[in-house]
Amino acid sequence: MNKQKLAICHPFAQWLLIVAALFAGHGALAQSGAQSCGELKSHYGPYDYRTDRDKLGIVEEYHFTPEVEALIRGKSSFRMGKDLSYTLNAFPNHHRALMSMMRYGQMLKTPQPPDADYSVECFFLRALRFRPDDTVARMMYATFLSTNARVPEATRELEQVEKVAGDNFFTYYNVGLIYLDMKEYDKALAMAHKAMALGFQKPGLRDKLIAIGKWQEPKESQEPAAVSNDTTATPTK
Asked: Would residue 124 count as lying in a domain?
């Protein structure tokens, strides 16, 4: 039941920590072959996990149950890969189902679970083809790439996330955690500084960087305030 508790209802920041922990220390999986990842059109969907919440009920009741999410047992066919595939065909960017599919591939030590419709990587590619602006799915894909020794590709995905992060300090914080896992310490530090500058208070990333001797306090601006030499300027009251 502990696995089940981990898998259910975690906030997005916690999912990525769990994903990184699950994959840390494991050997890289083989890259997916040059195969088609299939059409997105489904007899139910595709729907956006972030916005089409009213469509989730039937899928999560009959396919993405707590037991399936925790990789305990399947529901509709007693084959977890089929239930996960159904969920991800209906909701290609279903974040929790993507995480479970990634864990399923790791559990079976294969990039292509035999009872899944596509490879693990294909499910990420389908999610991003469906919703390129889904930064959570993109960060999860970056984690997948980095744990498969594809660091340059993972970095490119994270750079895309940074470009659209705006003032979302959670995004910078989680990108920093992934960079930390990739041992890209300078980039992790930069993300920690950005998150802090935007008001993020949790010290987790900072503490991890301190623990490995990679933390530096943000530098103060080196440029002094401009002083006018115009003696005719009207003084401020």
From this structure: yes
- Evaluated on CA atoms 150, 37, 52, 19, the torsion sign reads negative
- Paired tokens of 208: 């991890």
Domain that holds residue 93: 37-148
Total-model pTM: 0.79
Locate 200 and state its tokens: 């993020």
pLDDT digits over 65-91, tens only? 999 999 999 987 678 999 999 999 999
Q: Which of 84, 51, 46, 54 is nearest to 68 (CA)?
A: 84
Domain membership of residue 57 (yes or no) is: yes
Phi, psi angles (nearest 5°) of residue 101: -65, -40
Question: How confident is residue 2, by pLDDT bands cut at 50, 70 and 90?
Answer: very low
Rounded distance between C-alpha atoms, residue 116 and residue 113, angstroms: 5
Are 146 and 178 in contact by the 8 Å Cβ rule? The answer is yes
Question: What token pair was written down for 117?
Answer: 């419709």
Residue in the structure block whose two tokens are 């389908």: 126
Burial of 207 (0-12, 13-18, 19+ CB in 10 A): exposed
Residues ≥6 apart with Cβ < 8 Å to 223: none
Q: How many CB atoms lie within 10 A of CB 124?
A: 28
Do the domain assignments include residue 44?
Answer: yes
Residue 35, SS3 per DSSP: coil
**Number of domains making up the chain:** 1
Element holding 98 (H helix, E strand): helix 95-108
- Asked if residue 122 belongs to a domain, the reply is yes
Q: What is the pLDDT of residues 140-185, one digit of tens each?
A: 999 999 999 999 999 999 999 999 999 999 999 999 999 999 999 9
